[in-house]
Amino acid sequence: MGKKVLVTGADGFIGSHLCEELVKQGNDVRAFTFYNAFTPGGWICSFNKELRNSIDLFEGDIRDAGGVFKAMQGIEEVYHLASLISIPFSYHSPHAFIETNVNGTLNVMQAAKRGNISKMIFTSTSMVYGIARYIPVDEVHKTSAYSPFVASKIGAEALAESFYESYKFPVSIVRLFNTYGPRQKKDALIPSIINQMMEGKDEIVLGGLTHSRDFSYVKDVVAALIAIAKTEKSNGEVINVSTESEISIEDLARIITGKFGRDVPFIVNDRRKRSKKMDVYKLLGSNAKLKKMTGWEPKYTLEEGITETIEWIENRINNPIIENRWQ
Which region is the signal sequence (predicted)? Predict the structure, then answer.
């Protein structure tokens, strides 16, 4: 029998995929989405009618403690994904990141604690590791608050840890490494390359070629989140979600351009480069803890995930509902 589950950030890239899978597994899902006049419900609006109608849509703001408490009524399990995520934006608006990522997380945890929920998953980011001192990076690697965004995620992690230590609150901190797939924002690395190829560009503009990353397909990430939620062993733990496989940006771009059957040059544009203070050259995550704890294994190769992402963009970019969110 399924559970009554709350997903914050349900209107976003990963959150919408998570809602979809939770419903498929027989859960009763309440999707907490950020109200706006642009596209209420976000990516959930792109679901087919049957799936959309099976989800309880709650429009609110995690900065509003009262609204969060109301959304928590009757909930057994929480996946907290809602977050501000832009590093550049965080430099000139740090207060917004503290309000959403730290205070918003506190609101969610307090409401969940009052509701006596059985499990909360808090999604953090691999960016808290900063410049890797060794690879693969495991969960005991030192963190580095090199931007207000990263500091806000470290602060939220500390709150989650304190709730576990103080109240035995059943929360797991999950650090995600470079998730990609359908519904990802258009200016993210992989969709950006795909989009440039679809537009018939004679060259692909990138921010760099030699950096390397550990990319996880969104469906594998969702499977990991659900697997972590199912085990009590994860309570109070920090857990990486990664493939433990790295690839350079140049090699990644060659895989994508190869899918289109064209050999195009890659151009490094200084305007797309990150500043040195937020530039992580190499990031490869250890998933040993996740595998041992849950038995999770990634099911999608990078090429398979890229193929599905290309197919989704090709099939859906002209759909008016999708197009609005895709821009």
Answer: none
What CA–CA distance (Å, rounded) separates 3 from 6? Answer: 10
Going from the C-alpha of 186 to that of each of 9, 48, 127, 274, the distances in angstroms are 18, 22, 20, 18
What share of the chain has pLDDT > 70, as a percent?
Answer: 92
Strand, coil or helix: 294 = helix
Distance of alpha carbon 41 from alpha carbon 96, whole angstroms: 22
User: Does residue 206 surpass a pLDDT of 70?
Assistant: yes
Question: Sign of the CA dihedral 187, 193, 199, 202?
Answer: positive
Q: Two tokens at 307?
A: 């193929």
Q: Domains in the chain, start-ordered, CATH in brackets?
A: 4-183+215-243+284-308 (3.40.50.720)
Distance of CA 134 to the CA centre of its chain: 24
Residue-by-residue DSSP string for 88-151: HHHHH-HHHHIIIIIIHHHHHHHHHHHTT-SEEEEEEEGGGG-S-SSSSB-TTSPP---SHHHH
In angstroms, the CA 104 to CA 90 distance is 16
What is the enclosing helix (H) or strand (E) of 266? Answer: strand 266-268
- Please give the Cα distance from 117 to 63 (Å, whole number): 20
Q: Model confidence over 36-64: pLDDT tens digits?
A: 766 668 899 889 999 999 999 999 999 99
DSSP codes joined into one string, 158-178: HHHHHHHHHH---EEEEEE--
Q: SS3 of 55, please?
A: coil
Dist. CA 9–CA 133, nearest whole Å = 32
Per-position DSSP letters for 180-246, written without gaps between them: ESTT--TTSHHHHHHHHHHTT-SSEEES-SS-EE--EEHHHHHHHHHHHHT-GGGTT-EEEE--S--
| Among 1, 38, 37, 42, residue whose Cα is nearest residue 19 | 42
Predicted pLDDT at 325: 47
